Amino acid sequence: MNYQAKLKSQFTRLSPRLLTHGALATLVATSVVTVGLTSTVKAALEDSPKIVVDEVWQIVNNEFVGRNFDQASWQRKRQELLSRDYSSQAEAYKAIRQALRDLGDPYTRFLDPKEFEELTSQTTGELSGIGVRLTLDEATNVLTVVDPVDNSPAKAAGIQAGDRILQIDGQPTALMTVEQASELIRGEQGTDITLQLNRPGRGLFEVTLTRAQVEVPVLHSSLKQEGEVKVGYLKLDEFSSHAAEQMRKAIDRLEGEGVNAFVLDLRGNPGGLLFSSVDIARMWMETGTIVRTVDRKGGDRSYSANRTALTNLPLVVLVDGYSASASEILAGALKDNGRAVIVGSRTFGKGTVQSVHSLSDRSGLAVTISRYYPPSGVNISQNGITPDVPLDLTGDQVRLLRSNPSLWGTSRDPQYRQAISVLQSNVGRQPVLPPSLLPAPLSSRQDGKPAID
Question: What is the pLDDT of residue 336?
Fold first, then answer.
């Protein structure tokens, strides 16, 4: 399974869908800049699929970073691509994708207009819809509301967690997947949608809602009493443009509730915006380097903490093999600066940054423009970040957690239990324990059975 399919599949299983898809790269921004063409070339390509082909070629030629990138060969590729006749946009898209595959970089990729719109919604942290998280009820296989999003049409209409959606604009949902239902619910801002719902104690009823731009909550936080320690649990799904704002509010709220320590859960987080990860790192770190990027011309840029940390309370970060990209930037910065103890499995291992361009026909291109390195200087690509306290889940544990997302961050989650063990040893001491004082990993019972009851 390739990187994109692997992360998208895992992200879908780890948490209920919020009518959006997981971000799949470390992005510097979502650009809306279309590459300019000379007037002669533009006139020759007017209303031709070739104009998008040439836009893609120019972006790659100007920005792409690849260890074995041969610019002379890429010049020849342009002549080859523009010498063809394309009968449709779809045929041009196929040629573009093949040319990009030849670069040997899985993160430089073309997105058709629908894919580009989805990625834009993902990175901006907003979508046009009604603002509900959906799941299929395990017992009944009925499309069910997990919860409505704050400040959304669904919340304003009184839709509640547990409501069952039976029809969407007259179409029965009985055989729909969550993704299929999401496609019907999303739509242009200002348009109406009618849902038939069933609520225990109320029965059948209909609600008509007007779609609006909704901020996607990518952070889920709660205060947990673990023995004598009040733990702020923060589950970050991705690094959207609103992630830092949501993180700041959550930290401030938990500090006000008298929290003693934090667990930041980055498991299953496939990444997102580079600047979002830097902003969040600054909330935890008072000083120190966060990340360094190097472009193809050797340009070296370093991002550092700026004495704006919100807290110095003990922190444990949970990671796994699906923590990638911006997740690795944040985890690497906190680990290398001694600000947090990292618990879990080795991370995915993606050490490149992409920029995103919109093209003239509303399609898009993500292109690798630089490599990044944590403060230690270790090359993350293919290697990932090794936790301070390694703890892999067994197959049975993974299956149970995937089938019961509500168990993440509870006593039935072995990696979370390990994080709590670290914190209980740490509260009242320095912000981070030296490795020699860390508790031994909790892996399984002495009888060898999984440590999930």
Answer: 97
